[in-house]
Amino acid sequence: MSSFKNLLFVFADQMRAFDMGCAGNSEIRTPNFDRLAGAGVNFTHALVNSPVCTPSRGTILTGRYPIRHGAVANDLPLGDCRTVADVLKEQGYSTGYIGKWHLDGIPRDKFTPPGARRRGFDYWAAYNCSHEYFREDKYYLDSPVPEQVSGYEPEVQTDLAREFLRENRDGPFALYLSWGPPHDPYPDVPERYRELYRESGITARPNVEVPGRTAMARRLDYDRSIADYYAAISALDTEMGRLLDCLEDLGLAESTLVVFTSDHGDMLWSHGMLKKQVPWDEAVRVPLLMRLPGVIAPGSQSAALASAVDLVPTVLEFLGVEHDGQDMDGSSLTPCLAGDGGPESVLLMDLMKADESADQDIPEWRAIRTRDYLYAETVGRAPWMLFDLDQDPFQMRNVVDMPGYAEIQADLVRILGSKLKDARDPFVPGVQLVERMGLGPLWRERERVQSGAVATGGGSGASDARIAFAASDG
Hints:
single chain; 474 residues; alpha/beta; Alkaline Phosphatase, subunit A; Arylsulfatase, C-terminal domain; four-stranded antiparallel β-sheet; 14 helices
């Protein structure tokens, strides 16, 4: 048996921090997420650095900001950098990845073959990007012919995860499981979970505005979409329970670090918006639960400003794996469990005006988040928003450039500038950024595919597109 701890890292897609019982939401049913929090630590103010799928997923796996791992927008591939799986594989771990990947460029239904493009993961039951939760032919193993499966996607993925745990029980193992929900389409949830919220009233957050500003917001029913979002989370909660039970049945609960988080949140009608790619809390705050018996005290809470760049160094320290942290932008959160306050500020960003930000005509932005304030600028260092989080926790009163906040704003401008310098971020329009990074050809190919001009297929690269497809949001 290895002296290293095992890792089960589970993340949802587009799940907000607020929508669990352990987060104080009494209207949603999440007994197993609550069980996980009760047995470990709940980071109550966890953030993602870039609230959109591909950039955030790259950060979760590398500990780097998107501008340093290269996947600066949806459907751009992860650059040439080490992942957590690369590090763990070198230490003898059996590594596995199940679910949505979204780090291999275009087309979205492409086959990612065994080898370097799987970024250190050996076992593979994944697809690049899809949110068709009852589709039967989406998984790729080691053949370009997709596997035929049936049932609700998170249930199938959890079955595969349980099988991986059984087959690798002698360890050490590191399994990353990426569930697609509660990312829209919101109604695509088994009916038994939708029924849980059929008649129950759901209290809207104070900043909810309907009708919304986006075309999607005008098409969807407000009450039903939130109820279905809750239903999807309850469905995931059931699957989390199955995973925790499996670890206990196999005698692995004491030796396995369990992590649960999300790649970003969902505005879900707050400020009249849906989805993500903006700096408000609904898009950037995510759940972050960790359990490691004997190391993490049960029922712990930390209000530290944890963020996605911190996940890799934190995981490696908990597992007892030494590494050179110089290639990462984050730092371990383990001191926070001993009372350390954690980071004083977090850098947030959207590097490319595309997808949701293009739909809402929001230019590229950067932001700094402290315990007390959220400050954001749009490209060109133009002040955009400043919220006093103590006085305005739902971020409804923008006080940017107001005289009473001049000194505070000046300090936040300085902090943001320092963070941008450390991240080597030139803060230029996205179309200029991709050219500077040598990603121009990939970006233009991505735009052609998104426009429907190019087709997809099961090929191994962006140029393998064969037949037209309609791309969805990431």
